[in-house]
Amino acid sequence: MENKAALRRFFLEKREALSQEERAALSQAIVAWLQKSLVGYTRIMAYWPIRGEVDVVPLLQWWLKEGRDLFLPRVRGRNLDVVKVKNLETDMFPGYAGIPEAMGDVVLEYPEVILVPGVAFDEEGFRLGYGAGFYDRFLSRCADCRTIGVAYRFQVVKQLPHHDTDIPVQRIVCEDGWIR
Description:
Blueprint lengths: L3 H13 L3 H18 L5 E3 L11 H9 L3 E8 L2 E7 L6 E3 L5 E3 L3 E2 L5 E4 L3 E3 L4 E2 L5 H6 L6 E5 L5 E2 L13 E4 L2 E3 L1
């Protein structure tokens, strides 16, 4: 399956086939790994889960409760902006493609850690996204940030097709721990 579109369909169907109970249990395990690993950080950027992605909302709530800085992406044209979030219930609005995005001012500094969603990842950290290239363009500007792919274990494969413009994540976390 070298074709990115076919791979995307395969992994999206597999991810969306998870029951709510399976998704909740797997997401809870992944969030627990992240909570243990992110203790020393104060500034993270995450994502709002869509289409069966790992549900990191409990991590975001915990992060804010701890008084740490949380950032979420907001689509502007072909790029992602970084927006600081103070309250997940009042700071969100339907944005690009109906995906919840953060209201507020765009910040110019980058967070210490960026949690990156994906349709699939390979063992080298390359990701297969939805095909618009938002994260690759964004990550190309974040050389000093720690990047973590967030996925269910079945979304991590030995190798995915990638191009010179694709930016790999440094680590991947799934329900059974860390990869890379």
